[in-house]
Amino acid sequence: MTGHDMKHDHGGDGYKKNSITLGGAVAMGTGVMIGAGIFALTGQIAELAGPLFPIAFIIGAIVTGFSSYSYIKMSNAWPSAGGIGMILQKCYGPGAVAAGAALLMALSMVIAESLVARTFATYLLRPFDIEGGPLVPILAVGVILFAFLVNIAGNRSIGLFSMVMAAIKIGGIALFGIAALWSSGFEFAAASRDAVDFGPMGFVASVALAILAFKGFTTITNSGAEITDPNRNVGRAIMISIALCVVVYLLVAFGVGSSLTIDEIIAAKDYSLAEAAEPALGQVGFLLTVLLAVVATASAVLASVFAVSRMLAMLTNMKMIPHSHFGMSGPIQRHTLVYTVVIASFLAVFFDLSRIASLGAFFYLTMDMAVHWGVWRYRRAEIGASGVIILAALGFDAIILVAFTAMKLQSDPAIVAYAALTIAGVFLFERAYLSRWLAPQDEPAHS
């Protein structure tokens, strides 16, 4: 289904060509990335990587740069509102492999949503010295429902809101990093008092979480049909977003590392930015950081709910997932919004931050490998892509996934089992629904 077919706006369910500028696309990408990456994952990454955690962000960015190559080349050839669904369908045909991998992507986005929603709750409770307890899931579900209501209001409000929020977030977080570094005299304190051996395996596993901090670039791919001059601007928006995020993440990593030791970062891993702000910037700085975190995470949930419901609506339109109205009226995207909110709320209630992040890493890396393999195997020559870069991206993903799995088998084997069962379940469900794994390549797929 092309952007042209969908130009007529059906109650906020439509896609308008040329409605997103390059700046708007960058704001959307960074809006999704910066909410999750920095507030939810800094402490989780430090827990695995130790004092080297800022380097994990750099390597995560490099791996993401390699990963983005397949998406950019495919989006340049076929800019589409189908985004990742379109890329997978172009590679594997409309079968269970494409549909299963696309559904994993959608699920990893829902997981990111619940991750950020729980982070919102954790930061909001910091000034009251409340850690854990029933208020965390209650507030997390509250912010997801708020995002649902704003999304129902229509997407014009979302475009403007995410532009303003992206500017506040990037500016505010960069200022926090600079101020924290400045007050510490540019000293990096993050050494561990206990001689903990973090090890190379822990470091590689930390990169898996760092990649989650950058995966928001895929949101840009999903809006290909609406971005102005998409054949050039989709790729540009992706590269600018990743570059901006690297700068912001490094400022924060060094800012946190300059005012807290590794042990303190790990102890406060769910709210490490607020913790780092207090010694560096005093009580006012602490409260401003909490406020910034609350605004950033709320807006990231908002952008994410919109992106996931859009993706699920596209997959439904592409006949890649079954659809039940459950008695609801209105357009498909309204229904997919409801599914998204229900699943994200369930996760936010029953899983803690590190488990949610782990599930997201498993799903995302599996989907990403399916994209690279498909592009390398079926479309490489047609889109003029370098096989070496695609295979490098595939290799990086494989190494990181193996290290991450090994690490989690030691520390939390249950989450590996949940991830494996869900991934297998998604593919088997799609196989039963679509009755074939692959479809002939020369069929005219949706563009």
Description:
The protein has a single domain (22-432), classed as Up-down Bundle (Amino acid/polyamine transporter I). Helix content is 75%, strand content 0%. The protein has 16 helices and no strands. It has helices at residues 22-39, 42-49, 53-77, 84-92, 96-125, 135-152, 155-183, 199-212, 217-221, 230-259, 262-267, 272-317, 332-350, 353-383, 387-411, 413-434. Helix 4 (84-92) packs antiparallel against helix 5, helix 6 crosses helix 12 and helix 7 packs antiparallel against helix 12. The longest helix has 46 residues, at 272-317. The model is unreliable at 1-13 and 442-447 (pLDDT under 50).
Write down the CATH class: Mainly Alpha
What structural class do you assign from the helix and strand content?
mainly alpha
Largest sheet: none
The oligomerization state is single chain
The CATH homologous superfamily is termed Amino acid/polyamine transporter I
Mean pLDDT: 84
Order of helices and strands: HHHHHHHHHHHHHHHH
Beta percentage is under 5%
Computed CA radius of gyration, to the nearest angstrom = 21 Å
